[in-house]
Amino acid sequence: MIQFTNVSKIYPNGARALVDINLKIESGEFVFLVGPSGAGKSTIIRLLYREETPTRGQVVINGKNLLRMKDRDVPHLRRNIGVVFQDFRLLPSKTVLENISFALEVIGVAKKEVRERTRAALDLVGLASKEKVFPNELSGGEQQRISVARAIVNNPALLVADEPTGNLDPDTAWEIMDLLYNINKRGTTVVMATHARNIVDQMQKRVIAIESGKITRDEQKGGYGYVD
Amino acid sequence: MSINSLKYILQVVLKSIRRNFWLSLASVLTVLVSLVILGASAFFLVNANNMAKDFESQLQIAVFTQDKLSQAEVQSLQKQVEELSGITSVTLVPKEQALRDFSQSMGSNTLVSDLGGTNPFPDKFTVQVSDPQQVQAVADQIQALKGVEKVRYGQEIVDKLLPFTRWLRWVGIGIVLAFALASLVLISLNIKMNVFSRRREIQIMKLVGASNSFIRWPFLIEGMFLGLIGGVLATFVVGFGYQWLAGYVSSTLTFMPVVQDSHLIGQVLISLLLVGMAIGAMGSVISLRKYLKV
């Protein structure tokens, strides 16, 4: 489903974020990206939803080469990828319901279908009762659940998350992990960059470790493996 | 674009205007003020041009023939002058006419007989040229013709008037251009603020796969709509203002030529409306470009 071939990324300021990365992720996998800050985890995430393009090498998702992809085809790629961020990125002026339905409205889904799918996503994250509330009236964990709901309301084949538990306390973090686990169980591929040692150690999923832009370890049912 | 998207975009526009009411009002007022100034300077240009034309049309060349020419020679000379390029009309004033005009202007009925039947006036042509800036060149050409005694075209006045009218036109054009540019800058600044205040929304729209054109439409329609409202208001202000001022000037300063051509005035006002809309739309697109490159 995802294939990186000899991918390097050098930012305009000269920073070498990734060096010759080769990587293959199959459909339905759950993958942790671990490594120190600045190692290149976020760059991989950004390459996946094509906020960035590689300087060298190929990124192929579902048979589509992101380097050769035209700018106007990018929206279609993103409709099939859900993205979750550490800082939630909800719109403060929209209610919970509006924040989620927004993702469907802007791609032209009919109103009735928007309502049904938004409700289903809210049910999935367990916040159906909060639909009329504004994001700043919710706790951090609840806000992140809303942002997960927004990411999956399109039924994307791939969910990428950049430190989704980074701003949350351990208990709340586990609520989000349960959610991601269930989403993965339904067949969605999940790629998650994280610093959360406990979570990685306990989940026993595939772990890819990155240091200084290179893959240093790639193991199934791995652990976090670093001493911070 | 689907009907769903269209409905959604219109909803977004209305909601955005309501939620950002003060910013929208500021945009409308900016358009209004800029277009009023632009409209006023456009009317200044139209009138400056008209005034220059009016002055220039009063320029003509008087051609005096030599005394001894026969009637046939005078007529052939008139033909020759008519055939020169850049001439609109040539009118012959025969010497008898000139004498009569002169005695009339002196208020004397006996002048003709006092002169004892002699006529000191030569035959004269009054020549109108198509391009006033070419008066001197044409006058020189006529002077060179055979049978021409003297050519008069008010050298002293022409030498001062023509640079002045040229200057008047350039100043008019300069003022209009300067204010058009100022309006564009003011309005795109305003829209930039509007776009900036919604950059997170745009970012998330990009993230969930909204196309650029879909993101652009609401801003484009909103910009055009606000520009149009500002344009309509400006049209009223400038239209009525000009009507009042033109009436006032033409009744008090009667020597001033004021443009009262309703067709021309209508054209200026409609241009104001279109410029308002165009500025609104252009400002939106320019301001958005930076945020769509994600």
Measured between the Cα atoms of the first and last residue of chain B, the distance is 22 Å
Strand content of chain A: 25-35%
Shape of chain B: elongated
Q: What does the radius of gyration of chain A come to?
A: 17 Å
Number of strands of chain A: 10
**Strand arrangement, major sheet of chain B:** 2-3-1-4
Measured as a percent range, the helix fraction of chain A is 25-40%
Q: Which spans of chain B have pLDDT < 50 for at least 5 consecutive residues?
A: none
For the biggest sheet of chain A, the summary is: 6 strands, mixed
- The percentage helix of chain B is over 70%
Structural class of chain A: alpha/beta
Radius of gyration of chain B: 31 Å
Count the DSSP helices of chain A.
Answer: 7
Topology as H/E string of chain A?
EEEHEEHEHHHEHEHEE
- Largest contact between chains: A-B, 25 and 22 residues
**Mean pLDDT metric of chain B:** 80
Number of strands of chain B: 4
Task: State the helix count of chain B.
Answer: 10
The quaternary state of the protein chains shown equals heterodimer
